[in-house]
Amino acid sequence: MAEQEPERAADAAPRGAHESDLDADTEAERRRRRAQFLSELAEARELRDRVKPRRARAARMRQQMRMRTFRW
Q1: Phi, psi of 52 (to 5 degrees)
Q2: Sign (positive/negative) of CA torsion 43, 44, 48, 51?
Q3: Nearest alpha-carbon partner for 43 in 55, 33, 32, 35
Q4: Region class of 42: left (phi > 0), else alpha (psi between -120 and 50), else beta
Q5: Whole-angstrom Cα distance, residue 12 to residue 6?
Q6: Whole-model pTM?
Q7: CA distance 43 to 50
Q8: What stretches of the chain adopt beta strand conformation (E)?
Q9: How far out from the chain centre does Cα 68 lie?
Q10: Cβ atoms of 49 and 56 closer than 8 Å
Q11: Distance CA 63, CA 24 (A)
């Protein structure tokens, strides 16, 4: 166990130098993937609403009822 600790410290050292660059890249990539996912999700919901109008209407009615009965 004691032998592994120096290796971990050695692995952490190179990461620290470029960590801010990697974080910025991964954050931008994560935001891009999230935007793509949300776009596809909205498109899928619109398609489902067109394919099943009765279900979409029932969902709208339920949402309106929730909004009417919501209390502060």
Answers
A1: -125, 75
A2: positive
A3: 35
A4: alpha
A5: 10
A6: 0.51
A7: 11
A8: none
A9: 30
A10: yes
A11: 38
Q: Comparing C-alpha atoms, which of 65, 19, 31 is closest to residue 11?
A: 19
Q: What is the pLDDT of residues 1-53, one digit of tens each?
A: 455 555 555 555 555 555 566 677 899 999 999 999 999 999 999 999 999 99
Non-local (6+) Cβ contacts of 12 within 8 A are none
Helix (H, G, I), strand (E, B) or coil at 35: helix
Q: Which two tokens stand for residue 1?
A: 């166990």
Q: Which sign, positive or negative, has the C-alpha torsion 26, 27, 32, 34?
A: positive
- Identify residue 51 by its one-letter amino acid code: V
Using CA atoms, how far residue 31 sits from 19, 22, 23, 27, in Å, is: 18, 14, 12, 6
Tokens matching residue 63: 């949402």
